[in-house]
Amino acid sequence: MPELDRLASAAQYRVEDLEELTEDTSNTPNVIRISRIGLRKTKVADSRASVDAATQASRLRYISDFLEFFSGYVGATLCDAERKRLEMSTSFALKAFREHIPTVSKRAKLNARIGLSEQEQHRLLEVINPESSLNPWTRGYVRKRNWLLIVLLLASGMRRGELLGLQIGDLNAEAPKLRILRRADTEKDPRRIQPCTKTFDREIELARPVMKALWDFINNDRRAIKRARTVPQIFVSDEGAPLSHASIDKVFFQLRSVFPGLPMTLTSHVMRHTWNERFSEKAEAMGVSETVEERARNSQQGWSDNSRMAATYTRRYTAKKGREVALKLQERLDALTNKN
């Protein structure tokens, strides 16, 4: 039960915010012993914020289902008396474990995460411009790198882990395209917690100016860092090490801290929401049908053909269209009222 309690507690945090309190002697650096889980110490306290209740609940349900399955799997190898004792113990333990699952209201959507408005996006790009006096970073390399990674997030809608996993070899040298690939526990990645791609492999086409800026960064700014020349990952620190999840979180934490005019909810994942909302707006302006738009979005985001994930990432756009329809209804009501 103590291990299950610690596991339930850990489920409210992101994996990269957890660390093992004792050295792991195994050869699998991504394995974390449940009994020794603790919170990673960091100066950026804001980056250790809990995941939302829905994510925590989903994790705990999956864990509970797996433990129940595994108990049954082991029980099948035991004699009747031992199997019954195991079933009783499992039932008691999982009942207590499931008490940790938070209640998630399907109605509580007012504070759900949304993308940036056009004005907020413009303000963000104005602040992070490498030549801007508003830019919060002092070193030229860091200014250029942080500007580029945020532009890439806005241009592609990729996840933070996908951005960190990008390698120079993923870029097409003959066309403005890059590949987002799933890589699990690659030997060429020295990070203890390796970034991962949660969606399907896919190819993304970038605007030529964005691709040109990316190659310019690689061939000039990044190349000037000698230790980075042996690292396949594109985004590295000014010492040549691949950036971590915490590094990306720190970029957005610094932006939120220095410029109160930017949304306090500004994170790398808000860039993904922003891309999806701009995608919906452009699709509507181009007259793209809903079916084609849905398939095109799923392809661009690496989702399955029948995925319904778009609803999660287009809340602002959906709310806007809902308001427009509601106001039209009210105009009709006003017309009927005035006649009377």
Automatic annotation (TrEMBL):
GO terms for molecular function: DNA binding. Belongs to the 'phage' integrase family. It comes from Limnobacter thiooxidans. Keywords: DNA integration, DNA recombination, DNA-binding. Residues 111-334 form the Tyr recombinase domain. PANTHER family: INTEGRASE_RECOMBINASE PROTEIN MJ0367-RELATED, PHAGE INTEGRASE-RELATED. It comes from the Bacteria. Pfam families: Phage_integrase. This is Tyr recombinase domain-containing protein. GO terms for biological process: DNA integration; DNA recombination.
